[in-house]
Design a protein that fits this description.
The complex is a heteropentamer.
Chain A (H helix, E strand, L loop, with lengths): L7 H23 L7 H28 L10 E6 L2 E5 L5 H24 L6 H20 L3 H19 L6 H32 L5 H9 L5 H18 L8 H4 L5 H10 L4 H8 L1 H6 L2 H24 L3 H21 L3 H29 L10 H4 L1 H15 L5 H16 L1 H26 L24 H16 L8 H5 L16 H23 L5 H8 L1 H7 L4 H51 L4 H23 L6
Antiparallel strand pairs in A: 1-2
Chain B lengths: L2 H7 L1 H19 L7 H22 L3 E3 L4 E3 L1 H20 L1 H5 L4 H20 L3 H19 L5 H32 L4 H9 L6 H19 L7 H8 L2 H26 L8 H23 L5 H21 L7 H31 L10 H4 L1 H15 L5 H15 L3 H29 L13 H19 L2 H12 L5
Antiparallel strand pairs in B: 1-2
Helix pairs in contact in B: 2-3, 2-6, 3-4, 3-6, 4-6, 4-12, 4-15, 4-21, 6-7, 6-12, 7-8, 7-12, 8-10, 8-11, 10-12, 11-14, 12-14, 12-15, 13-14, 13-19, 14-15, 14-18, 14-19, 15-17, 15-18, 15-20, 15-21, 17-19, 17-20, 18-20
Chain C lengths: L4 H21 L3 H25 L11 H31 L13
Helix pairs in contact in C: 1-2, 2-3
Chain lengths: 647, 490, 108, 490, 190
Amino acid sequence: MFLPDIPELMIWAIYFAPMVSFAVIACGITIPRMGFQARHASRLTITAIGLSWILALWALDTSIGLDGESAGFAPHEWLRLFDFEVDFGVQLDSLSALMMFVVTSVSLLVQVYSTGYMHGDGGYARYFMLMSLFTMSMLGLVMASSLLQLFIHWELVGLTSYLLVGFWFHRPAAAAAAKKAFIVTRFGDFFFMIALVLIWTKTGGIFDITEINALAAQHQLSDAVLVGFVLGVFAGAAGKSAQFPLHFWLPDAMEGPTPVSSLIHSATMVAAGVYLLARFFPTVEAAPGEVTTTIAYIGAFTAILAASMGIVANDIKRVLAYSTISQLGYMVMAIGLGGFVAAIFHLFTHAFFKSLLFQGSGSVNHATNTFDMRRMGGLRTAMPLTFATFIIGSLSLSGVFPLAGFWSKDELLLDAWHHDKFLWMVGTIVAFMTAFYMFRVIFLTFFGEYRGGEEVDVGHDVAGPPHESPRSMTVPMIILTVPSVLFGLFALNGFGGFIEGTLPEEIRHFKFHMDSVVLASSTLAAFGGIGAAAAVYLARTPKPEQLGRAAGPFYTFAAGKYYVDEIAEGGIVRVVLHRFLGRWIAAFDRVVVDGIVNGTAVGARRIGDIARRLETGHLQAYTSMSMLGVVVVIIVIFVLSGNVLER
Amino acid sequence: MTGWEQVYHIGPAVTLLGGAGVVLLADMILPRGRAPFALLTLLVLALAAGWAIWHANTGTTGPSFDGAVVTDRFALFFIFLFIAATAAVTIASTDWVKKLDLSAEYYALLLVAAGSMSLLVQGNDLILIFVALETTALVQYVLVGLTRRDRSAEAGIKYLISGAVAAGLMIYGFAFLFGTTGATSLDGIASFVQAGHEEARLPLTLGFVLVAAGFGFKMALVPFHGWAPDVYQGGPTPIISFLSVASKAGGFAIALRLFYTGLGGSETFISEDWAMMFGVLAVASMLFGNIAALVQTDLRRLLGYSSIAQAGNIAIGLAAVSTGSTLGPSGVMFFLATYVATNLGAFFAVIAISQRIGSYEIGDYAGLIRRSPMLAAILMLCLLSLTGIPPTAGFIAKIYIFNSAVQAGEQWLIVLVAVAVVNTAVSAYYYLRLARTMIVDDAKDEMTFRPTLSMQVVLVFAAVTVIFVGLVPAPLISAAQRAAETLQIQ
Amino acid sequence: MTVDLAHYLAVSGIIFGIGVAIALSKRNVVAVLMGIELMLNASNLAFLAFSRFSGAFQDGTEPLAGHTFVVFVLTVAAAEAAVALAMAVLIYRRRETVDLDRISVLRW
Amino acid sequence: MVTLFLLLPLAGALLALFLPRERELDARWIALLFSGLAFAVSIVIFVTFDPDQNGYQFVDQFTWINPSGAGFEVQYFVGVDGLSAPMVLLLGLLSVVAVLVSFNIDERVKEYFAYLLLLETAVAGVFLSLDLIQFFLFWELELLPMYMLISIWGSGRNRYSAMKFLIYTLAGSAFMLVGFLVIGVDAGTFEISALTEMPPQDALIPLSLVFWAIMIAFLVKLPVFPVHTWLPDAHTDAPTAVSVMLAGVLLKMGGYGILRIALPILPEQAHDFRFVLAAIAGFSVLYGAVITLQQRDLKRLIAYSSVSHMGYVLLGIAALGAVGLSGAALQMFTHGTITGLLFVMVGLIYERTHTRDITSMSGLMHRMPLIGTVMLIAGLASLGLPGLSGFVAELTIFLGAFDAHPAATIAGIFGVVLAAGYILWMVQRIFHGPADEKWADLKDANCWWEHVAMGSLVVVIVAIGIFPGIITDSIESGIAPIAQIFEANL
Amino acid sequence: MDSVGVVIAFYVLSAITIVSAASIFLLRNLVHAIVLLVVVFLGMAGLFLTLSADFIAVAQILIYAGAISVLFVFAVMLTPLASRDNGNSLYAGPGLLLGGAIAAIVVVTAFDVEWNQLTGVALEQRSFTDTIEVIGNQLLGPHVLAFEVASVLLLFALLGAIVLVTDPNNEDGTTAEEEAGKDTAVGGSE
């Protein structure tokens, strides 16, 4: 629009800049002789991502100039093995350009934030190495032109998520959470991979996303294939985007450093699932209606389920995590309802304010050394900047006019209103709950008396009374308030048209409008939530304990996270897989399969023992054997030759 | 043909038998215990070998003594084997003989055994075969009891009585063959069988089964094997080493001659009967020998069972004989040739080791590789060859004989081969367990030792043969092939 | 009433069977050797009967070859008996027994 | 060139064996030199190999055994095609790695390296042989060094495991020999390429039986359920370098054999039984993975994971399509490097902690970050993480197999999830968690040979993960003729 | 053979031979058994005579009834401490069974097979008048080699028998157990 069209090489540079940073830091760590120091790592990373950000802006600019349509770069050959032909390329259209912009900007801010948050940590260089790797992978994911390329980076972001959640691997909880995160998402990827193999097989070897979408849109794929493919892709997305029933890894993943949560588990990676569905939106649309409805309902259910858990969680980060799940549920619901633009728009705004909120929680943690809200309180005086930014983020998330969250959520609920009133109701309730738990957090954390924090946690050398975080942390937060407040205005400014540029003409049907019922109800829900939270946690009428008691089993259920963890981990994995299947199969292997082998050996020796007893040492046993042999052989031959018996 | 020409045809045998007399004479003439009997024996063997080579080079073939004997490559092949085995045993047993008071008799008996076996393989007439076989047998009985120690005597009497019973069976079988076919010469029997006298099937069957019992005793095939472990354990080891190869080879040679030439070879009305009989005996031998060997702790006894199992392997070649190609016989011959080298190597190593450590228990062989690397290495090589693991001669021999059985083109032969190959896996257990004991386990006694020079010579020779044939088997296979061709009826 | 080959063979077979039975079931070495001699005798009878009756002799083969064979069997039997008895004496010197049931140090 | 690759390690083995005892440690350098030279040769072979050219390259051929008139012509016939070229490269690489990780062997050094190099020669022979009998020879030759290496330098129940390995392989290969003989006899040649051009139409026994007779040996070696139980035992008790070789190249002999022999020679039978193979494959993947989840012993865990991973190879083969087959070949290569690396790492860990019990370890990452990182990389590669070599191979297999065997493929894909489970569980238990006092003295990898061994494999894993084209060109040219058989006729 | 005398002779001699042979099995005294063995040999010789095998019959009497029986008597005398009974071994049952089986097989075969045998005139024409001459010609003619080998056989049987009964230099003071110990290392470190 403003600049000349970006050449392909520059888009690749967006991807390669963090990769170079990663490689250099990796070499620096493993080869001690290079004289690499920790502080180089953060500088390198920030520089690289900064470069990527600038280029991403250029790309976005170009894409806007193209009205969001694909720039159509030719892919490059990666692998040729008979029919297995894979080409890697970059996709520059509205979706990827937007995602690149989101990823690079959030990443850049988080890197800056991290220099403060991770200051003095033993794994400082490693941290930035992994962050570079993550950024690279995420960029690779969003710019991929081939499904396989997308999948590869999909897995890579999973890996970096694993490594970063388990960054403080000495903490058993972190190590366990990392493993859990990886395996649960991998379980989703299982279906994704089936989908990938299925589509390759059924299309005769096509991996190119555009081509797949085109085939689906032209109804050249059978319904069965479409159902299989879409459900598989959705399962993969559900794993990554923490949709029910694969949602339970995300709260645990909060064991990672907070900037990681801020970048990966709120803004980018978890949104990759939504991105994936959006990427295949034409295919999803082509699939039978039941499929999309299923997707929508799962999204809605996830949204309300996560929100209910968020209300009762005491860990600030976990509340945010549940909130993330809930918001992702919104987006998935939107996709399922055909609300392509709404989903992406919400993804876009959510990335910024959720990242902001996480950074705020990190800042709080920096001061108090805890994430437990019961140990906080009254921080608004000690940390005014954090407080202010957190409030803005919360308001945006709650959907208060005219902040970014309001616009995107409104689009979303509008879609629901048009397609399915029940889902709209659910969405509105979730909006209420969102406002409630967000302001519960605010009241518990920033209002009231300070309740003491916690002793120094490993990896942090900050102690003493709470105080404002260093500038390296506050500045990114302040910067993030800008998109949290303003970016909703794009809704008025052709965002929909731009973002639909990626879709084929036939299914572009976005038109910006507002519906008074939806508008009113959502605004009511938001303020109702805020008010309710104020009543309970600020005015303490009714007291939260009373409320909990009143809710009775619901409260217990929600506080127990609906026992999904227990069922999945304890039930399925431990009991079914380990105790039942695993143990029995292992025993079967040991006793039966190996037993037959050893039994054969033992049996052979036994028979050998018997056989050698035939050699009694008595000569006449031997001669008798000879005679017996002769007699038997003669008789057998006589009988066989038939001469004797016939007569 | 003049008398001398006839004697020329059986030159090697005559030399050996005459040599035995010379040795005995030398014992009488020279002062007791001084005479270089071993050298004399080797000289006789060298002469015999020279004569046999002369035969081979001049291509002397054909019957003599009115068809009682034939001189052909088949016989020469085995004569070479006997001479080689006898020479090796002679060299290897020089130390052992020093402690024996009967060295002249020992060498003379060895030479007679070799000579009579040479005649045996040349034999083409039941009478000569019978006499030569009995001579061999009697001499071997005496040899086994030669030390006149307790176990030697027990081994001797067991060997003798088993042998006598076997001989009784065999001669009864000869009677039926003779009576049914009206001939004592193998050619006569062959022409009768080939004429297809189906009505004579029963007595012929009776005859060849009884004869097979007699030969089976020599070959140590199940169920005529009973003597083997006891005799191997009790007899004097050098003599057993001779017995284990030469006697077995003689048994197989005469079985080939009789069944292949005498009974008219393949495609007679009884060929399938006896081929299958040998097949069954082969299976039984392999199974029994290998299974029973699994639990042995005495090395000589182990080798006894092993020899039964190996006899089963070789008998596959006998079973494959019925096809008319030379593969079966050549398989038997090639296998036997490698078996001679392998088994002699193993036995000599065992002798050399046990002379020092005074035990034949497998457990006492622990850590031998450190005490005497050469002996342990050679013994291991021979065990590998017995198992049939490359690059040893035993590997090629097994493959070759299995191949001949498959080439025969009978389904039941493939089953036979399948049993045989599975048995190879079983045999690996005890052969390699021994190898492991020698190489892996810790020695109880760290004192090192070396075999005597004469022993070293034969051991190295055996080892080199095993390896050489394993790598370059073609010449020996060709020799066996050419020898087997002469076995076919002209 | 005629007597032909079958009768002689039957007698031979019975004697052979008795010889086998004795050889297989007597524990005294001398008795066992007696059984073996019976087996040899039985085959001699068979040889002679075949010589006498068999019509299978073709031209140039001598029916009396059976007799010749028997001569050799006799010779071998004698030699074998001699060696066997020497062996029996030898084992007797070592063990003071010729009972085959008790000559079983070598076994298994 | 190819013969040079075969002979170099052998020469090294002999040289090492005859070192004087006081310079025993020099055997390490000899082994490194010769395996390094062989590696260099393998690189030259791989690089100069021309994928666009049909047939075998670098062929050396002469008649080894050809007796007159008998159907037993055996050739020395070696060469590489696109299938064996990567295998040779893998062998060269892993041999060097195996030598490197053995550098601190201090017991019976000469013998150790001699056996190790002999093993390399034997495996090289398997990959290079183009004659069935020669193939079988090398197949069997590999047994002895493996047996000795596990027996002497192994730990735990090493004797049991070594014997189990031996008997299992022998029993499997026994039937293979029968199959080879039946095919060879029927066709009159043992040359693989000739047999490939004219697959046998009819044989003495049903060809489907022949097919399974041959397959059983390969399936044992691969190994798949239910003939896999030798693998965990052998791995657990073997020394590090042997585990590396075993997992890295020996298992590949099975898959290679199927691709080289079973499929091209008996395509119709393979086609008939493809569902059985796929079922075995799919079941093995899940079965192995589920059992892996139960393991507490580090080596057993990786061993069982190999069972699971080699199931993929069979799955790719069962697809009988170009993509599936090349996936199988690719998986063999990548699994070789990955599991090789895993065993190297396990060896390094075991060397330091003297335990393989996963539950007794914790927080080792604090003490040895480098080992932990490399182990993590290896583990991630093993669970099929994109960007590392395992992914490409597994994906290729899935793509190739899905159309033919959807259920088995889905089972295979689920195996990837389970793989994530056991690998991450292992990493978590060993490396993560608080540092344990008892491991306070552990040192990270600090010797150059450890660095080189780890580094080289990591480089290969990453390189192939990112640029699979490095070896796919070669594999494509190797698989194309095999795939053509199936596409053209069936 | 139709001649009544021959038929009667055959049956009588057969009966004597078979009964005597069976008695060897049944008798409990070894010396009595040897006596009966001589009877068997003599009966056999008679049967040989009915087959016109006069030379063999004579040889049978000389060698078997004469020499070999004496050998047996010697053997019995040379083993004075061994038991004199003719007891059955552990394998009497199988032995009897197998003996019966082989006998039955031969008898069945004998009567089952249609033998290619001479009858009547042809049988009469087969003249076994001068068997000695023919046997002599055979022995020195086609079977001369066997004849020579038989001499070697006899010589070495003689030698063997002598060798076996000669005691080794160390006069027997050792018991079986000590021998057994030494035996394990034949030619070993004595």
